[in-house]
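Chapter review: from sequence to fold.
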Amino acid sequence: MPTDLELAEQHCPHLVLYPEISSPERAKRKNWRKLNEAPLKEDYHPRSVKLILDNSETRDDGGLTIFPRTHNTDRDGFWRRYAEIDKQAYPHTTYAKIVRRDDLTAIEYWLAYPYNDWRSTHEGDWEVVMVFLRNGAPIACAYSAHHGGYRLPWSLVETDGTHPIAYVANGSHANYFFGPKEYPNTAEAFGLTITTGEFPFTGPFVDFTTSASAEDGELVTPAVELIPSNRSDWVDKWEWLNISGRWGETELPGLLRRIPFKGIRFELSRRIWGAPRAITDPHRQNWDDPFAWADDVCVGPQFLGSWLKRLR
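The token string follows.
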């Protein structure tokens, strides 16, 4: 019988990521940054959460401000600061949490990114890849993407042995099952689902993934750290799990700050340009109840829906 750490290492996802930051990538991503202001080329990979903690200040509301004195919408300013960090001190890392229910096991792999550099920009970004097992055998996966996620049975997931492969969208870190590809997506606001290309002021919301065999793609297998199951053990190196506020400062881009209705500005800031909640936040269904999250929030092929409902 493997230990929890051995089990988490056995199914740790292999991530296909872009490196950061070069002019050709910017053109392909169709983002807003000025081509003549590129900082050093850097990776854009999930690393030890210490990278964020060592470069943050705690706000009065319990949240973090990453890279203080750099505006959260200043993309090039952020990456100049990031380029100065010795990355060898912060290895590629995923934080694994295991949840069991009857004969089912969910392994949550949490990934910490310092910045969301996409059509929406905000400090901090938490994403998750999940593997579901029944009686020790993998049966399905669920990947986070923006405010929702995607799910597939294990038989349809691209794998490397016992490891699922996740294609990480450049800038937004949304996780996808297949690549290289462009993924139009949707945004939710005020109870409405707005299809890409229809969202005002911003233009289309499109994710880009690449291939590990392509020149601009890189395959990364993060080291696994197992999150203690008892909250009483969230001390010392695990103290960050007690952070209750958002992981980053939040503010709308200049044009959108001119919207005259405060409620609209708030919703846009919270849902689209908002820094992520702490992964232990009670509003995060994918932390406390991964089975319900995969069933109710994630989407998959229609003919698989009723089968995946049995995860609960």
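Two observations follow directly from the output. The longest strand covers residues 104-117. Confidence is low (pLDDT under 50) at residues 22-40, 194-199.
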